[in-house]
């Protein structure tokens, strides 16, 4: 019983608890499903307009949540705050398409798929890849036959915005080197 009260045991218990706490924040984020967001859109062999809307809003939810986590942990680091605000507008544009098509808007599940990045550099690297995937996703959507004209405009605008985000994230990453 004396070992339970020893200083060495108590310090070990504190260190173990701290490591467990840190690991749980990483573990709590689940792996993004293969059929979710841009990754899902790029793999879907039978892409429809309705499914494209679903993938698009999922991907915008993911981006917004990723940038929320970066700002939460590291503060107002360029270019995350400005692009986070843009993601909100992207979601609003997609919501208007959902409403026009009389479709139910999917619930935002992005929190369960995003983890706190280990560093600003890692966050920027992830953002670069996410924007590359996002651009490819919107390019694929623009190939859908009989796409409503308003959807063509929104998908084009969102793709073009992602191109600008990609430039900003690459610039931010170049400053980390």
Task: Write the SSE topology.
Elements: H1 2-5, H2 7-27, H3 37-43, H4 49-74, H5 80-100, H6 120-141, H7 149-176
- From the coordinates shown, what is the CATH architecture of the largest domain? Up-down Bundle
Average of per-residue pLDDT values: 88
Specify the structural class: mainly alpha
Query: Major sheet: size, sense and barrel closure?
Result: none
> What Rg do the Cα atoms give?
20 Å
What's the CATH C level of the largest domain? Mainly Alpha
How many beta-strand elements? 0
Number of separate helices:
7
Task: Return the CATH topology of the largest domain.
Answer: Ferritin
How helical, in percent, are the residues? over 70%
* β-strand amount: under 5%
The total tally of domains equals 2
- Parts with pLDDT < 50 across at least 5 consecutive residues: 18-28
Globally, the shape reads globular
Give the topology string: H per helix, E per strand: HHHHHHH
Q: Give the N-to-C terminal Cα separation.
A: 53 Å
Please name the fourth-level CATH homologous superfamily of the largest domain: Ferritin, core subunit, four-helix bundle
Keywords:
177 residues, mainly alpha, Ferritin, 2 domains, Ferritin-like_SF
Describe the structure.
The protein has 177 residues and is mainly alpha-helical. The chain has two domains: 1-30; 32-176, Ferritin, core subunit, four-helix bundle (Ferritin). Helix content is 73%, strand content 0%. It contains seven helices and no strands. It has helices at residues 2-5, 7-27, 37-43, 49-74, 80-100, 120-141, 149-176. Helix 3 (37-43) packs antiparallel against helix 4, helix 4 (49-74) packs antiparallel against helix 5 (80-100) and helix 4 runs antiparallel to helix 6. The radius of gyration is 20 Å and the shape is globular. Residues 52-169 form the Rubrerythrin diiron-binding domain. InterPro entries: DUF2202, Ferritin-like, Ferritin-like_SF, Rr_diiron-bd_dom. This is Rubrerythrin diiron-binding domain-containing protein. GO terms for molecular function: metal ion binding; oxidoreductase activity. Pfam families: Rubrerythrin (PF02915).
């Amino acid at each position: 019983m004396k070992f339970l009260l020893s200083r060495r045991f108590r310090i070990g218990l504190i260190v173990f608890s701290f490591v467990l706490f840190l690991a749980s924040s990483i573990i709590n984020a689940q792996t993004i499903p293969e059929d979710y967001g841009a990754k899902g859109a790029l793999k879907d062999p039978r892409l429809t307009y309705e499914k494209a809307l679903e993938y698009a809003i999922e991907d915008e939810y993911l981006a917004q949540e990723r940038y929320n986590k970066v700002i939460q942990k590291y503060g107002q680091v360029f270019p995350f705050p400005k692009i986070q605000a843009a993601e909100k507008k992207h979601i609003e544009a997609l919501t208007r398409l959902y409403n026009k098509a009389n479709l139910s808007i999917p619930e935002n599940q992005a929190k369960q798929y995003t983890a706190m990045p280990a560093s600003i550099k890692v966050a920027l690297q992830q953002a670069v890849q996410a924007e590359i995937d996002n651009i490819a996703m919107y390019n694929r959507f623009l190939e859908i036959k009989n796409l409503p004209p308003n959807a063509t405009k929104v998908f084009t605008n969102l793709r073009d915005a992602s191109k600008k985000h990609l430039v900003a994230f690459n610039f931010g990453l170049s400053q980390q080197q």
